Amino acid sequence: MSSNDNDTVSLTSDLPPSLHKDVFRSKLSWEADIIAGIYLIITGFVSILGNGYVIYLPIKQKEKLKPAELMTVNLAICDFGMAVGGKPFLISSCFAHRWIFGWIGCRWHGWSGFFFGCGSLITITIVSLDRYLKICYLQYGIWLQRWHVFICLGFAWLYAAFWATIPLAGWGDYAPEPFGTSCTLNWWLAQASVDGQAFILSILFFCLVLPTAIILFSYVKIIAKVKSSAREVAHFDSRIRSKHLLEMKLTKVAMLICAGFLIAWIPYAVVSVWSAFGTPDAVPVKVSFIPTMFAKSAAMYNPIIYQLIDCRCGLAKLSGCFKSSYSKPSRQKSRLSDWRL
């Protein structure tokens, strides 16, 4: 047996039996792969165009971004990276009816998807905490500076890089999805050893459960605060009341973005856990395929939400919808302040 054969055996030994014969061959029909490829082209185009525009706005504006705008741009960078770093590989493989980039390409595809996806989730978590502090602790908005946000976003990138890279460093691995034309974390390691179980459980806790818990905590506290302070706000002067209403509108936007991300990724997480701790081949190929395609579209949701907000803002222009809490922005300058979180 050649060294290449040995490498292939070692790489596939932890995978379920259905993937042992040809791990990179598509388990779907040609028609399903073609439809998936077309779907991914559409979602990829919307993701790249929409998030690219959000990233381009501050370059065109040539002004320092406010803290909340920095978070918006960082989220767009994560979504843009997810689309550029993963979509071309997946689209090409769908039309080829198999994964065509080998194990190195598989690991890159898995790493980039996990890195930018985790970065997006941590950014959304930071946004949720920002909304929580701004609504529940009014003084927070006064002392928050740009450098505080840079530290938080730097942490988000380091956090994502750490968890995405440890599978390449020997703890865990990346492997093909059950349908064969995409790659992800090797969830089946949980069935191979205690070490594999520790890896999967760590990923689930630190990259899904903990951020999601923080997001839910933030918005539950916000809702409770709004209900308890409704009468109190009514006695504020008009300027403070207007600012409070603005912060509430922006909080609703942030909640939409959080909900969109979680709705896109939770079904995929459920199927992945099922694969990790169920019996081998417990997840049918079609069942694993649909949540994956749904999750791959997550990067396009935020630009659509921003555009819907912008349209609503245009309709409500006379009422001063989404005025900046710092100054009255000019529409000719940029619309980024309308989208800021």
What is the structure about, briefly put?
By secondary structure, the protein is mostly helical.
What can you see in these coordinates?
The chain is built from eleven helices and two strands. α4 (102-136) packs antiparallel against α6 and α4 packs antiparallel against α8. The longest helix is centred in the middle third of the chain and has 41 residues, at 194-234. It has a single domain, classed as Up-down Bundle (Rhopdopsin 7-helix transmembrane proteins), CATH 1.20.1070.10. It has a two-stranded antiparallel ribbon with strand order 1-2. It is an all-alpha fold. Mean pLDDT is 81; it is low at 1-10 and 314-334. Keywords: Cell membrane, Chromophore, Disulfide bond, G-protein coupled receptor, Glycoprotein, Lipoprotein, Membrane, Palmitate, Photoreceptor protein, Receptor, Retinal protein, Sensory transduction, Transducer, Transmembrane, Transmembrane helix, Vision. The chain crosses the membrane at residues 34-59, 71-91, 111-129, 149-171, 198-220, 253-277. Residues 50-306 form the G-protein coupled receptors family 1 profile domain. Pfam families: 7tm_1. GO terms for molecular function: 11-cis retinal binding; G protein-coupled receptor activity; photoreceptor activity.
